[in-house]
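note to self: dont lose this again. the chain is below, predicted strucutre after it. 159 aa total, dont forget to put it in the shared folder this time
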Amino acid sequence: MAVMVPTVLLVTVVQARANRRAAQDLAVRVAAAAQQAAMQQARFHEVRAELDAVIRPLGGMQGPFTGHMAGAYRLGAVVGRGGYGEVYSALTAGGDAAAVKVLRTTWLTDDEALARFRRETDIARQLSSPHLVQYLGAGTLAAGEPYRAIVKRIIDGTF
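---
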């Protein structure tokens, strides 16, 4: 019994030191992760500000298809542009809002670009999640340009 008490105390001290080291290591990792998260958040805000600065001038700009019909959607102002197309705000006759992506005319003769647009549309059609925009449909404008319609929630300053 006399030997057992010092042994238990020794084991307790060794375990406490190991726990202390583990806690200190964890605190260092948590601090590093918090610093990395803060840096990523700062980068996100910088990129978002740059994106807003680029997009803001597009608000209200007329595009070549403004006023055209894409299925049930009348195309409004251009809200975004990319390498393959333009995104228009759109409304149905009943006032339902959507974003409609229209492939640029220059890509209509490029089979690879058309196939990519179709793949993108097929993937959008198959995905369903409350965390993704809802796919509404796809088709061809009267002028022949393929389009894809997606639901968008209208939030001032975003598209």
